[in-house]
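Final paragraph of the annual report: two paired records, presented back to back.
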Amino acid sequence: MAESTAPEEPRDPLAEPSARRGGSRPLLALAALISLALAVGAVAVTPPPAPQTVERAAAQSQPGASTRWCHGPLELPEGLLDAGPDEDLALTPPSPAVSLRTVSVEPASSLLFGRVSASRTLQEDDGSVRAPAIVAEAADGSVLGDEPASQDLGASVLGVTGVEDAPHVTSATSDGGRPVADTVQSTLTGSGDYRSFALTRCGEPVTEASFLGVSTEKGDSAVLVLRNPTERAATASVQLWTQDGPAAMEGRSQVVVAPGQEQRVLLESVAPGQAAVGVGVSVLGAPLSMYVQSTERDGLTPGGAEILAPLPAAGTELMMPGVEVAGTAPTLVLANSQGSATTASVEVIGPQGPVEAAVPETIDLPAGTVVSTPLEGLPDGTYAVIARSESPVTAVTRSELAGADLPGDTIGAPVDFALVSPAPAIGSHALSSLPTQGSAGQLTLIGSMDSAVTVIPMAADGSAGEPLSLDASADATVSLTSEQLQIGEERAVGVTVVPEVPGAVHASWSQRESDGTDASLLSSLPVLPARGGQDPVTVRLSP
C-alpha cells in the first residue's frame, strides 16, 4: 500500500530556538567592530593636513616730501614803534625781510659719500640727471620760487630774497620721496635800534622743543612764537626756568593754538629781570612750528637780536664748536630741567688744543634752574666749548662782538650776540645750507675721537668744488673759512660733511656780517646730521 505523509505545520519565527538567534548577532557585532577599528586606524595613520598660510593685506609707506617752515623777520610787540613826543628818540624798525636758501640732494648722490662724480643711476633717457624739486611758498601759498639750479650731481639749489612773511619750503626727490635737504633763513639789519644779523634753520613742526639763553632784563625782550600749520588744533604746555628755579606760569602754562593760527608768549611778562631763561614746550595734538625771538638794548645802545630754532635734545656731553671771542668773554649757559640736582664740568678747546679758562672745576646745577658761567681769560679766536654732566642738561654759549662807537654821549658801542647751540654728532654724513649773506663765514669741527673728514662745498648752480680732506680730533678744533670753501670765484652755498668714523665729528657754521663799517654782526648755526632717504615702512593688517 502506498506510504502517506502528513503535511508540515508552518514555522513561527518567534518560536525558533534561542540558540539560533544568539549565534547570528555576535557575528554582526564583530563585523561592525572590525569596520570601526579600520576607520579609527585609518584616521590615526593619516597625517594631519599642512597649515594654510594666511595672506594679510600689506602696503609700503614711502617717506614723502619734506616741508620746512621758516620763521620770517623780526617782529616787535604791537605799539612799540609808535612815535612818542620826541620823534628823534623814536625807534627804528628792524629789517622787514628775510632771505632763504635751500640745498637738496638725492639720497644716492655722490656728494653724501665724500665724492664728486656724475650720477649714473639717476639718468633720464636723454642722459640728463634727475635732481630734487624745490618749491618756496609765502604764508598765503603764493609761489616765491620753484626753479632750482642743478647739474649732474643729483643736487638742487634754490635761493629767494626779500621775503616779508613766514615762508615754507617743500622739497622732494625726483621720484617724490624724501631728499636730504636743508633750508636756512637770514635777516640783516645793518644799523638802527635793532642792528643785528640772525641765522636760523627752518624746520619741520615738532611736539617737543626747548630754548635757552635769552634775556628778559630791562630793555631786552623775548617772545615764544607757536604756529600751527596743520588742520588740527594743538595745546602747548609751556614752562620757563630761571636761575631761581621754575617760573610761576600763573595760568599761562597752557596755550591753545587753532589750525592755521599763531600764539605768542612774551617771556618778560612771565619771568622779568633775568639775564638768561630756559623755555620748554610740550605739545598735545598737532605738531607746531616754534621759535624764540630775542632783542636787546642797553638804554639807547643796540644790543643785537636772534631768532632761535629749537635746541637739540638734552645730553650728558654737549659740544659747541664755533664760539667766537673778540675782546669779550663768552658765557656758558646751562639748564637743568630735571627733578634732581646735578653737576657739570667745562672744557674749552682751540686750534692748538685745550685752553685754560677761568671756570670752576664743577658747576652746581640745582633742579629746575639756569646757571650762567663766564669763560674768562680766553685769547681772541674761535673755540669749541664742551659741557659734560652727570645727568642730561641743555646748554648754549653766548658770544658777543662790539662795533664802532656810535655818535653821542649817551650811546656806547653797539653789540651783536650769537647763542651757539650744541652740534649733534654727525652720523654717516651731514648737509648744511649756507646763508645768502656771507662776508666772513667759518666751518668749525671737533671730534669726540680722531677721524678723517671730507668736506665738499656746493655752488649756486648745483655743481660742487673739489673735496677737502681734514683730520678732526678730540684735542683740537679744525676750521675752513669762506675763502677756503670757494668754488672758483664763487662763494659756497652749502656743504656736505662726511666723517670716516660715523658719529665722531661735530660741526658748526659761524658767520660775521658787515654793519657798513666792519664785520661786527654775528650769528651761528650747528651742522645737523642728515635726515632723509629713509627706508620704506611696511604696514600689514592685524588679524
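The closing record of the year follows.
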Amino acid sequence: MSDIFISYARSTEAVAKAAADSLRQAGFKVWRDDELPAHRSYSEVIEERLQNAKAVLVLWSAEAVRSQWVRAEADIAREAGTLVQMSVDGTTPPIPFNQIQCADLADWSGTADHAGWKKILDSIGSLVGPTLSPSAPATETPKSDRKRIIVLPFQNMSGDSEQEYFSDGISEDIITDLAKVSALDVVSRNQAFSLKGKQIEIDRLGADMGVSHVVEGSVRKAGGRVRITAQLTDAENCNQIWAERYDRELQDIFALQDEISKAIVAALRLNLLPKEKKAIEERGTSNSDAYNLYLKARQHWISSNDSDSGPLDTVIRISRQATAIDPDYAKAWGLMALAQARLIVTFNRKVDARSAAKTALSIDPDLPEARLALALLAAGDSDFDEANREVAAALAVDPESFEVNKVAARIFFQQEDIDKAIEHYEKAVAMVDGDYHASGMLLTCYEAKGDTDNSNRTAQMTIDRCKAALEKDPGNGGAYGMGAGGLAVLGMADEAREWTRKALLIDPENQSMRYNLACNLTRSLHDDDAAMDILETLFQETGTALLVHAEADPDLHRIRGNPRFQKMLADAKERASAQ
C-alpha cells in the first residue's frame, strides 16, 4: 500500500496533484483518488487506503471545510495519529482540527523550497520514516535470489478476545522460525503487525513492500484443542501455492508450529540446512502449558502501559507459574525479571529482580528481557555505563523488539539523549498501538525539542490511545493521567484539568500517574505550585530510581531552579541514600 493518502476538495485538484508529484519526487509512495480501480466501490477503496496510510495529508480550503468526505477522512486520520494539514487558500481548519498544527501554503507554487512545504515534508517524514532515494527507485534495484516473505498476523477465531494473545504468539513464532532460514528475507514482526485488522490486497502488498510471498492464517483454541489454518500465496499473481488445516491437541502445539514452518519452506522449494532445521525446532520449552502461560503473561506485559503496578504483579504471578512447570524456561524467567525491575524503578517496590534475571541468563546468556531488567536496575542506581552495556547487548540480539526499544528509549532519555530516545520511542509506538505510555513519553521528547508539529501529532496520538484504554476500563487512572498531558499540549486546558481531577479521584496512590500529572502541570499548564504539591508528597514515598529520572526529565525544567523544588529533591535524595 502507499504510505501517504491525500484528501482534498475537487476545486483544489491541481494543488493535490502538485503535492503528490512533489512527495513522489521526495521518494514517498502516494495515493489520491485519481487512482481508483474501475471494478471496486469508491467508499470501499477510500476506507482501505485510509486505514493503511502512514500519513494522511489534508488540503484545507473553503470547499474542503464544507465537504463531508474531507472532514470524515480528516477525522479518521486524527484518531489514528496520521493527520498532516495544509491550508491552500488561507482557510482555517474547522473544529476539532484547528487544535492541530496546519501549514500555510496559500502562496505555494509547487516548489520544494517553500517554508510551509518543508514543514509538511518533515511531518510526513516523521510518520512514514525513511524514503526511497529518488535517484535510485526500487524498480531499478536488481532482484535478489532470496525470497521475501511476510507473515500476516493470524486471526483469532476463538470467539473470545481474551485468546488474542495465543494467535499473536503463534504468528510471532512463525515469523521467528522463518527468519532462521538463510534463503528467506522475512518482513519484521513490527511491519507485519502494523497491518493487523486491515484489509489487504496481496498484489498491492507485493508491490508496496517488495514481498514475493504472503502467509495468512487463523487460530481457534478451545479447551485442550487448537485448530490452525494457514496458506501461502504468490504476491505477484495471487495464486495460492499451499494451504492446510490442522486440528491437534494443545500439547502438540510445538510439533504443529514446526510442521507449518517446514511446510512453508517446502512449498517455496527451499532446502533447510541442518542447523536451520535444529534452530526452528528450538522453542525454549517443551511444555505446552508453560508456553501458553508465557504468551498470556507477555500479553499482560504489553498492555500494562507502565501506569499501574497491578498488571506487573499479574505478569510476575503467571511467569512464576510457567517456571514452576518448566524451571529451564528462560523467556519466562526473563519476563518475570523485567516486570520485577519495573516494579522497583517505577513503583519503589522491594522485590528481587536480579535473581530471576541471573537465572534467565544462566539458561540463555543472550536473552534480551533479562538484559533489559539489569539495564533498568543499573540506571535506577545511576550506573549508566552498565545500563548502556546491557541495552547494547539487547539491541544486538533483537533490534525490532517492542520491549528492547521501549527500555532503550527510557535509558537514553534518562541520560538526556533526546534524539536517541525519540528514535526508540517512535519504534515502540509503531509496534504496539495501544501503548499510551510510550506515546506520552515521545510527546515529552518532542516538547523538549520545541518540535510543535510532532508534539501536536503525538499529543493527539496519546489522547486517542488513552480514550481507547478508558473505553475498556473507565477506572484506568493512568490513562487519565497521561491523556491530560496530550490535552494540555493541544490547548485544551479545561479538559486537561478535568482529566487530572478524575485521575487523582480514581487512583490517588498511583506513584507513576501522580508523577506524570505533576510533569504536565508545570510543563504545559504552567501551574508550578500544584506540580510541586504533588511532587513533595511523592518524593517522600519514592526511591532512588524515580529521583534519577526526575533529575533528567525536561518536563521539570520550569521548576528546576525553584528553591522549594531544589530542597524537596535534596531531602528525598538524602532519605533514599540512607535507606
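The radius of gyration is 25 Å. This concludes the annual technical report; the extension proposal builds directly on these records.
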